[in-house]
Specification:
Blueprint: H1 4-12, H2 25-42, E1 46-48, E2 53-55, H3 64-72, E3 79-80, H4 82-90, H5 93-107, E4 110-113, E5 116-119, H6 133-145, H7 153-164, H8 174-188, H9 192-211
Antiparallel strand pairs: 1-2, 2-3, 4-5
């Protein structure tokens, strides 16, 4: 199964250029940090409540990206705040991104050509829907936001991540986003890490707007 960081990068992937969406580093790094924490939570390595994040188990997960994040969390007290954990891990966002890209290449979903990462349709080592993982992630999000279905934990997470860094604009038109905004907000708030990440994203976005008004 793909990690959330991998799914996030697939949503950010541009099939035509072979590159990724141009998102401010602070925002993308925070989203990747949140993705790592969310995977660790699902794997019962950490737990969260409204104010704290607790490390439950430091046993490696077998995924290099997640184990890197788990090791970095050792720099914090076993019981800390989710914001502090996000703040620590987002400083390693570039590393998380490179590790996620390398894992996608290893899975046969992306390949590196001429220094760029390109989508390869004929290589299908992880087929979900017709072997097109990018379309599967987008379809999952669309099916959920355009229905009243109860989301499972993984759907909640990917929507919270995509909403936090603006990647839902790559799935929906502006009018569709306006119509689905209430549903998006409801789903994103179901996850405690997602709430903390959303708060941090809002603060970072406001700061970037003040510092880079013409970006």
């Amino acid at each position: 199964m793909l990690t959330f960081a991998e799914e996030l990068l697939l949503l950010a992937h541009d099939e035509k250029s072979g590159g990724f969406a141009n998102i401010q580093d602070l925002l993308m790094n925070t989203a990747l940090a949140g993705a790592v924490l969310m995977d660790l939570a699902i794997l019962n390595r950490i737990d969260t409540d409204l104010s704290t994040l607790v490390t439950l188990d430091r046993t490696p997960t077998g995924e290099k990206l997640l184990d890197y994040g788990l090791t970095e969390l050792a720099a914090l007290p076993a019981k800390t705040s989710t914001i502090d954990a996000l703040d620590l891990l987002r400083k390693h966002g570039a590393t998380f991104e490179q590790m996620a890209i390398a894992r996608l290449i290893e899975r046969g979903i992306l390949r590196e050509q001429g220094g760029r990462i390109l989508w390869v349709f004929e290589t299908r080592r992880y087929p979900l829907i017709d072997g097109k993982e990018l379309q599967e992630v987008k379809r999952r999000i669309a099916d959920l936001l355009l229905s009243d279905d109860i989301p499972d934990s993984r759907d909640v997470v990917i929507i919270a991540l995509a909403q936090a860094c603006g990647l839902l604009r790559r799935v929906f038109s502006e009018s569709e986003l306006r119509d689905a905004q209430k549903r998006i907000d409801q789903i994103a708030k179901l996850d405690l890490i997602g709430q903390a990440m959303s708060d941090m994203m809002s603060e970072l976005s406001a700061a970037l707007t003040r510092l880079l008004p013409y970006s």
